[in-house]
Structure of Glycosyltransferase:
Amino acid sequence: MQVSVCLIVRNEEQNLPRALASIPASFETVVVDTGSTDRTIQIAEEAGAILGHYRWNDDFAAARNYCASLATGDYLLAMDADEELPADTAEKVNAFVERQPHSAGAVILENVIGEERPRHRMVRFYPNDLAWTFHGNVHEQIYYKGEPASFENTALVLRHYGYDEDEYARTGKAERYIPLYERRLASHPNDAYMLYQYGKLLYSLNRLPEAERYLRRSFDLQEYNRLYFPVMAVMLGYVLKEQGRSLEAEQLLTALEPFYPDFPDLYFLLGLLAMDTGRITAIQHYYTQALNIGETDKYTSVQGVGSYKAAYNLGVFYEITGNTQMSVRCYTMAADYGYGPARNRLK
């Protein structure tokens, strides 16, 4: 079995060496350049990659599909230049193909954002067959025979550096993506995933009323079974909370408990909202539920909400309500993860 790693790049001389160095030697590497003016092309050539050129037309899916057309492997792994593969990539890929032959696979993207390492899943691995193609000019998704592809989860974890503040500012991603979102939504106004992505970008820019509008439109389309939906709903909850509307957020999210009983981020946020609204007994319930679920790779999740962050907040609850024994137990649990605020509480 041959695997081809496919990258589309432009002016990535700072990131590309790290990405290429992480690709297993047994894998084929395909790099398609969309108009670099730095050393990107030279770096790809020196690494021995198959090199292609694509005239940029504001369409990531079209560029990805062109890159795939140059690959000769049985399976394709789409990768970005600001990502890095782990040392066990070949092992994880082979295990997935043995378990789920001819299937698309969702990898885990671990985002490096300061001290945080939030994770989310994206479908990046798929058979090299014309029935499998990317769709969408921005935040492109894998389709099978013209419909969103079904997939299985892989154990492969890619480290993503693109959300690092310095990297985000250097590449100007926010400014580049806004017109792409607007163009897509002008022709596909009910694209719930794109509405979510635009709302997510606006939230990152602290444009809360606008973010709420797009996230709400995405939420109202009720695509409960799509990979993005639970994290979009939680994001909408944070947007409402940050605008002083915690009760509204709580009412919105409690209705989702039957759909996502194993999503720690949902219960962690419900704990925060219960603190805001003064529902004392609910605080304990929600943080305990988050701890019982634990950390997850099934959903896009913020590190700590199923472990040390939930334990710390539960410790604060017990401390405020006078249960010193339980507060110390929770702070100790959080401190064992190296969580500084918990260590400070124990001093």
Summary: The chain has a mean pLDDT of 94. The longest helix spans residues 173-187. The radius of gyration is 22 Å.
